[in-house]
User: Fold this.
Amino acid sequence: MEAQALCFMAGASSIFAGDKLLTTPNPEFNEDQEMFKILGLMPKQSFADGEKPVSQPDPIIEARKLKEAARAEELKIARENSQREGFEPRKVTTVDAL
Assistant:
């Protein structure tokens, strides 16, 4: 019985927030509060017992963002140049029967 109580309490620290868990909708906030009340648990603020970890930017994602921004700027300049030069896309016609 003691092992079951320890497992249950260990799982109590794993409460997830958001619209959907991996396979099922997340319970409403008031449902969690009701469960805490029944179990005699008191929720606490995040990182109340220690320092909040510092998030470091991912260099791969940062490099991709820079590349996407550079490409967007290239496309903007190309559009402006084509409008300034009076570029008209060619008209393509199709032949229904050969």
